[in-house]
Amino acid sequence: MKKAIVVSFYKSNNIGDLALSKSIKDIVLKSGYEVTSYDFGTIEKVKDETNNLNTNKMPDKCYSKIIHNIYNLVKYFIGDHLFGYLAVISKRKKWKAFILDLMESDVIVIGGGNMLLDKQIYWPSLLYKYSSLAKGKGKKSFLVYVGAEKVTSRISHLFFKKALNKFDYVSVRDPESLRICQEITKSPIEETIDPVFQLKPPENNFFGITDELNIGICVLSSVCFKDNIGFKKYLDSLEKMIFFLSEHKSFKIDSFYLFSTDAADFYIVDQLKKRIDIQSKNITVKVTKPTTLSNVINLYSQFTYLIGGRMHSMIIAQKCLLPYCGVIWQSKIRGFSKVVEREKRIFELSEFINHQYIAGLIIQDLKNIEVIKRYMSIKNSNLESTLDKTNFLK
After folding, report:
1. Is 275 helix (H, G, I), strand (E, B) or coil?
2. From start to end of 173-250, where are the E strands?
3. How far is CA 6 from CA 9, 332, 379, 387, in A?
4. Label partner for 10 (CA 20 to 30 A): which of 22, 38, 258, 344?
């Protein structure tokens, strides 16, 4: 049997990353390969893929702030990119183990998440290292289904350009990522879609069909915003939206469910609930913290509508035929809105903070649930066809 190494975000605390990793591995397995999995960031072999968020290891805020300050101090004295490069090459034992597996493999597949992003300063060096090893060992290499954000550093741009030029095949998951990558390299890049769109929800399709009218809200934390001002406006708008919808006479909303698909947001989910409880005891607000993709799908079966936050909260909703709206906090969300043709329901932050306007559109959607679901079903069929056509191992 042919062998493949799949490198992805297996140790993430984001359900979207875990779903992406599993989806990519499933594609490789279905193509007839025996797979060895490695986590992209840690360069560690992954033997036990539980696909659960590791919420027990969320850092203490005070401790993490001290570590963060030390980290920034070291970066300041030696420079961001030298720091990133040293962080990559210092993991000699891990690279040695990886190379041994690479030598035994026929192909290497790297993918998932926003890999073409220099917010994590060592990622450009890390991707270049993976690509160089594959090229040096004569292995066919694929960089697949990646997202890209604007690269702010000239050195990061150079690392990414060299890395992209070394891969035998590169695909991105949305038109925004394609545009950014084409600014980095002239190498061929295929536009496809997120492989989580191949998700198969339960066939009975009971999403949105409940005796209660419940609205789910995937809440974003401050890490998703450029500054605290934008985050505060977003959170204030969510709070006002909940009050506005709860008082609307057209529909009686039974419950609002606050959650996230990323463990980094869980603390703000609790804070938002406290803010609402202080002001009103008449609104039913429930908090849930899913740790697996199955948890999210089961949770969605209780919703009539979703106010999306994290991108995969909306991708999963699309696959479950759960009508939704959302906010653009990163360019990948804008790209996603084009892929699913929901630009009129996925808003720039400047629009989203107009809570009455957004709530009004939600009310419109609630009146047209079945029409929206039929359109989503047709769109899903087209998306599945696109994924099949762009299978990189066919």
Report:
1. helix
2. 190-191, 214-218
3. 10, 23, 29, 18
4. 258
Q: Which domains does the chain have, with CATH numbers?
A: 2-192 (3.40.50.11930), 214-379 (3.40.50.2000)
DSSP code, position 56? G
Q: What is this structure's pTM?
A: 0.88
Bridge partners, residue 2, by sequence:
33
74-131: pLDDT as tens digits: 444 444 555 455 556 667 789 999 999 999 999 999 998 888 887 667 788 899 999 9
Which residue from 115, 90, 138 is spatially nearest to 40, judged by alpha carbons? 115
Three-state SS for 137?
coil
Q: Are 258 and 304 a contacting pair, CB within 8 Å? A: no
Give the C-alpha distances (Å, rounded to integers) separating 99 from 37, 96, 254, 389.
13, 5, 55, 32
Helix axes 154-166, 175-184, angle to 10 degrees: 100
pLDDT by residue (tens digit) across 351-384? 999 999 999 999 999 999 999 999 999 999 999 9
